[in-house]
Specification:
By secondary structure, this protein is an alpha/beta fold. The protein is 62% helix and 10% strand. It has 22 helices and 12 strands. The protein is elongated and about 115 Å long. The structure holds adenosine-5'-triphosphate. The site of adenosine-5'-triphosphate has 14 residues, from helix 13. One of its GO terms (molecular function) is ATP hydrolysis activity.
Length: 623
């Protein structure tokens, strides 16, 4: 890899397709198994981090499990009393008492099961919410390069899936398994008490069962790998298609979108069926094992009761305890299988949670306050993929309060300048200075506090227009918001809406046009009152007249700030003090519109293509 450039992985549709095919090098095939050595620390961490906050609920659940286990043992034991007293000794007077005890035992079991379901449900929901929040709060702080090769929907679906898996592992181990073990202890006590020999026979068959179950477990583990990825892939393809619905419709690509979705769904379905089929083998195995044990009992019990005077009550109590033990034993035999499936997701979850947030995000770094807005790029190189340069050895200065336009053909590196300035990516080589301070040493929070960005892809939160503008400066008064709205020409369209600036926007509210959204974004940036303001094709969705009005206002409002403006419209560019011309990652020229129009071939060619009036001199919006 060229040492000049930091690696950055592009979003590639082929990558998604490759993952769908499960091809070599795909995320799926790269996933590792959760070995026992890895599983233990994962499980330990899950429990240590998540259970203590719910210990009171957990204790309540444990008491319920103990009560339910005791009641289950008692309900097997009462069989002996019932058969021997009522049917062998024919004691009719005992019927009422024994029936009352049976009803009492069932009542205890029912109440314990109800309370346990309620408590584990509460614990599960609390853990799922907490794990989702922890993952999301980490993901939004990732370096943007982490988002380059994954669709956002994939991140979100993974977060949801991982959190559910984490809660399942915790509850399977600390609640369901504990409850099953307690029930088995209670039933085994009854069994040993009735006949130690018969108990031994049943225990002897268990290793055979466990070996077979182990083999199936390994197969399921292999199949479960990548199930999460496939689910996320389906969501990602579906979301992508809906997001791009206008393009899909205009190119009549509905069939292609449906086919690609169906392909992903089909792959997921096949994987699900395979897992299901393999899991299903567990049941016949356990049934056959159980049948074998019961057959042996009958032979042994007949011999005992015919020759050695064992009572039918003892035999019934034993069989009942054994049958009751079947379900919890089956669940315990499957614990490893169930957990293995979930541990793959838990590992992904901790991978997300443990991924370092962008360097020096949050604490640390030099402070940056009261700045003039001087910017200096010194020999800056950067590559997104580690090989092809997006910027190569770029150096330039921006004076405080200068209005700088950045132009270039598509892919020339204009947005990369903005990404570097905001430290959304770090330069592979060279340095960037803000007011003379190396930006790499400045606290990331301070860099972003001092720069306001209006980007080409406007993002508005669901809420009112006013709330969205206020995001620029959370403590701003209504008057300040309204003044920013006036400057950015938001008021001109908001006054036509029933609720003005208090109109709801976003999925549940009014849908604004692309240009209206851009004006809200400009108002938000103006309100921020940062010493440096960047417009990255901020007016691309506005018509010529509106664009000029908004940019006049934006430049005027920013007269005391440094402005960097990436634009394709000559009217905006002419208004700048100086223009930088980029081509294929290189800074090829800089000067005023008049100078560049005379001497810079690339500048001329850019604007000759779209704007014939290139040689007309431009009006300066500010001196
Ligand atoms: N996320 C990314 N992953 C990989 N390569 C990227 C990424 N973003 C940009 N590039 C590449 O870096 C180079 C510079 O891109 P940049 O977005 O800075 O160009 P631009 O001049 O802003 O283009 P446009 O005017 O089309 O927005 C291009 O060759 C582009 O393909």
């Amino acid at each position: 890899m060229d040492s000049d450039f930091v690696p950055f992985h592009p979003t590639k549709p082929e990558r998604i397709a490759k993952e769908l095919r499960g091809g070599k090098g795909s995320a799926m095939s790269a996933k590792k198994r959760i070995s026992a050595a890895l599983a233990y620390p994962l499980v330990r961490r899950l429990i240590v981090e998540n259970l203590p906050p719910h210990k009171m609920l957990y204790l309540t659940g444990l008491l319920c499990s103990i009560a339910a286990a005791g009641a289950t043992g008692a309900s097997a034991w009462i069989m002996k009393v019932m058969i021997n007293t009522i049917y062998v000794e024919r004691n009719a007077a005992a019927v009422w008492g024994i029936s009352a005890v049976i009803i009492g035992i069932s009542l205890i079991k029912g109440i314990a099961a109800y309370s346990q379901t309620i408590t584990t449900g509460k614990i599960r929901r609390a853990i799922v919410s907490d794990l989702q929040n922890r993952q999301f709060s980490r993901v939004v702080r990732f370096d943007i390069s982490r988002f380059a090769n994954q669709h956002p929907a994939k991140f979100v679906s993974k977060i949801m899936f991982n959190a559910r898996a984490g809660a399942s592992v915790i509850l399977t181990l600390t609640s369901n398994t504990v409850s099953d073990v307690l029930t088995l202890i209670s039933l085994t006590t009854v069994m040993i008490n009735q006949d130690p020999m018969m108990s031994l026979i049943s225990v002897a068959v268990l290793p055979v069962l466990f070996v077979s179950v182990g083999a199936i477990t390994r197969k399921i583990k292999a199949l479960a790998k990548g199930e999460t990825e496939l689910a996320a892939m389906v969501q990602s393809i579906g979301t992508e298609a809906i997001e791009g619905i206008r393009t899909i419709k205009s190119f009549q690509l509905e069939d292609k979108a449906v086919a690609s979705f169906a392909k992903a769904v089909g792959k997921m379905e096949r994987r699900g069926i395979q897992i299901n089929r393999t899991s299903a083998m567990m049941s016949p195995l356990m049934e056959t094992g159980g049948g074998l044990i019961i057959g042996l009992f009958i032979i042994y019990a007949s011999w005992q009761s015919l020759g050695n005077g064992k009572t039918p009550g003892e035999f019934m109590a034993f069989i009942t305890a054994f049958l009751f033990a079947y379900e919890p034993a089956k669940r315990l035999a499957r614990v490893n299988v169930d957990i293995q499936k979930q541990l793959v997701a838990v590992e992904q979850m901790y991978h997300l949670i443990d991924t370092p947030v962008q360097q020096s995000q949050g604490a640390g770094g030099e402070r940056l306050s009261g700045i003039q807005g001087a910017i200096r790029f010194e020999g800056v190189s950067f590559s997104y993929d580690g090989s092809s340069p997006a910027l190569h050895h770029v150096s330039f200065d921006v004076r405080p309060r200068e209005k700088l336009a950045v132009v270039g053909r598509s892919g020339a590196g204009k947005t990369t300048i903005v990404n570097l300035l905001l430290r959304l990516v770090e330069p592979g080589k060279g340095n960037i200075f803000i007011d003379g301070k190396d930006s790499a040493a400045i606290s990331l929070a301070d860099i972003r506090n001092n720069i306001a960005l209006v980007s080409q892809d406007v993002f508005l939160f669901e809420g009112t227009i006013r709330d969205n503008i206020r995001d620029g400066r959370p403590g701003a008064s209504d008057a300040q918001i309204e003044s920013a709205a006036d400057l950015a020409q938001v008021s001109s369209f908001a006054s036509g809406l029933e609720n003005g600036l208090d109109t709801l926007v976003g999925p549940g509210g009014t849908n604004l046009s692309g240009g209206q959204k851009q004006r809200v974004a400009i108002a938000r940036a103006l309100l921020k009152n940062a010493p440096i303001i960047i417009y990255d094709e901020a007016t691309s969705a506005l018509d010529g007249e509106n664009e000029r009005a908004v940019m006049d206002a934006a430049f005027d409002a920013a007269s005391q700030r440094t402005v960097i403006c990436i634009a394709h419209r000559l009217s905006t560019i002419k208004a700048a003090d100086r223009i930088l011309v980029f081509d294929a990652g290189l800074l090829v020229d800089s000067g005023t519109h008049e100078e560049l129009a005379k001497r810079c071939e690339i500048y001329r060619s850019i604007f000759h293509l779209s704007t014939p009036e290139v040689v007309q001199s431009g009006r300066k919006l500010r001196a």
